[in-house]
# Entry
Amino acid sequence: MKDLRGANAIITGASRGIGVYIAKALAERGVNLSLAARSEAELETVRAEVAALGVTAIATVCDVVKPEDRARLIERTETELGQIDILVNNAGIERVRRFEEAAEADFTDTLAINLEAPILLTRAVVPGMLARQRGHVVNIASGAGKVGVPYGTSYCASKHGLVGFTNALRAEYHSSPVGFSVVCPGFVTDAGMYDRWENQGIRAPKIAGTSKPEKVASVTVSCIENDRAEVLVNTPPIRPLVVLANIAPGIVPRLMKAFGYSGVFERVIAAEQSQ
# Structure
């Protein structure tokens, strides 16, 4: 989709974090926006900000886990904006827990929001895209969807699933004009979970580095415009580590400890328990 001006996009998780930056980046390309999130006041603030960029923007309070909310989001988008050209599955949660201490809801909630909802939203919009021979879906996953990290079992499971889901769609529809991409950010400063960790004095391992949310948004737009399959958004040193972890998974536990990942998440757990 080289020319995005006038296209219509749904963005979930649009009230805060990376979702806000993706919304603004698409609005700057002239994309009309259907913004979805559970936080009504914050969502309306974002809607007003992107509408000021000259596009049509609507905001729908939506819990992506609920079938009735997903159906209402799609119906309202089609009624008020028109056909859905772009879907950005950005809504997600991350819970850092020791596996044996995690509640059952930590797994069911994370998988429902991070994996099941994107699959079902995609299933709802793809038939229309195929009929019109135009459309793109971007799934916002994580570096944790490429390498398993300690104390993130539910999150890693959901994001690995999202990466696999996207790759399977690309294989199935490789000859179709409808595209599918997955974006895998690492530690994103100034937005989301890691921003809260930074405020607690917790820093990413040096080898991992950090990325700005503007970079993630820019990559998301590039995926739509250029049909990029999978993009890892992080500093260059982490990329060979991801490759190594996938061809020699037995060394991952030692790498996580040696490069400081284990220590970061242990500090997160300690900070949460002290509150």
User: Anything to note?
Assistant: Residues 146 and 243 are 9 Å apart (CA to CA). The chain has one domain: 8-274. The mean pLDDT is 93. The longest helix spans residues 104-132.
